[in-house]
Design brief:
This protein has two helices and six strands; from the N terminus they run ββαβαβββ. By secondary structure, it is α+β, with helices and mostly antiparallel strands. The chain has one domain. Strands 1-2-3 form a three-stranded antiparallel sheet. Strands 4-5-6 form a three-stranded antiparallel sheet, with no helix packed on it. β5 and β6 form a beta hairpin. The two termini are 23 Å apart.
Length: 97
Amino acid sequence: MACCRGTWAIRLLDGQVVRALFPALGVVCGAIHASGAARLRRVAQGVAHQAAILASGARIVVTNHEATLALEGKRVVRVIADNQTFAADKVIIAAGA
């Protein structure tokens, strides 16, 4: 599914596509890909995403350095960032330009 707004497009990716791109993540329901997202209202979008993530009980870890994903088999079980280790039942990677 895709939705176009001006010069950017939003695509919903199913879990199978996401797992093919990032096999270490294990079970993935899906993902959102926003091409041209740098032109979105990033601050408002970020605040809304952060509120939804925290309301779901998740923890947000922000780092300016590379994070390491620790695997057991093909599953991510820990995230190491800024010399701290975080146990991980599920991982959301928010990466972009």
